[in-house]
Amino acid sequence: MSAKQPIAFYFDLFSPFGYLASTQIEKIAARHGRTVDWRPVLVGITVLKIMGMKPLPTYPLKGPYLNLDGHRFAQIYGVPYKPHGLKGHNSLAGMRAFQWIKSFDESLAVEFAKRMYAKLWVESVDITPVEVSADVAAGLGVDREKILAALASDEVKQALTTAVNDAIEQGVFGVPFFIADGEKFFGNDHIWMMERWLKYGRWSPEDSVGL
Amino acid sequence: MSAKQPIAFYFDLFSPFGYLASTQIEKIAARHGRTVDWRPVLVGITVLKIMGMKPLPTYPLKGPYLNLDGHRFAQIYGVPYKPHGLKGHNSLAGMRAFQWIKSFDESLAVEFAKRMYAKLWVESVDITPVEVSADVAAGLGVDREKILAALASDEVKQALTTAVNDAIEQGVFGVPFFIADGEKFFGNDHIWMMERWLKYGRWSPEDSVGL
Hints:
homodimer, Glutaredoxin, four-stranded mixed sheet, 10 helices
């Protein structure tokens, strides 16, 4: 049996739908004998600027729908979810911290991302200050001074920039965004389609999932 | 048994994803013992202006993905689909014609919409000129002079405007958009969720659809 490729899961701590997907992706991958490669992207800071768009929840008509949809997905997934109402926050320190931790311990980085997601999307903690990333990482056994030094270093900043550029190169324009065996999927609402792709490896009406 | 509400299906002939959904909605509704109420909306002309957005396929990064996604949905549905590459076209005459036909024969209006969708999204025919709507309606037995007169009348123009304003009032920001028993769903990628709602009438992890 040939080794199966991991599912690339592009995430941004900034995104509520990224949070929601992050609670499910490991389970989904496991159903298909896959692992997950968590990859950072900066939607608000970088991608939307390239696209000439604002964050989707701020658009008239679409905003209220996305709010409804977030709560609905949380219920379907059975996970806690609390929109925080913060303004002026960003995920830069958290995403840099993730990329740095990933450089020496991938599963630790995933655990860090999950805890950071919970801070922002369950506990309404503003994750903008570097100290929040340092505290969360310290709770996972990472040396607090070491991560604060890393977050101030040009190398770590550049590592995230490179990763985000790679994501954009792949066509990532929002999160959650998945690449599975070369096929691209955007949004929690496309997960059923990705699962079908992982199961059948083709698109055909005969592979209907039904209800 | 109490009468079940029809599924409101908001469509715009302009939209490729509206076309794709139009090929499936009757079958989906029938699976749940429902009928479909086809309701017009003007996405390009009206809704996107309110939102301050351009048509989604014109955005960098998102455009190529939507192109891929359209072809993928066509394969999943097993229907013909050919992006037309037209520019400067609109769906105004066709949507007015639909609304006018619906005022005296709802199922005829649906058949008209389906044929117009096929014109634009399978045969690459520009549906902007009123003559195209007149020809398609004539092919369904509608008097050609009568529909041309209707399309020039203020009453018919106003009828569509009223319908579009109703759609916006409901929060419709794109197509396909569905309202089923009060719950709103946007996009072909949300149809699985609508089917779940129609089946269970609630959101719960226990109702997992799995694969």
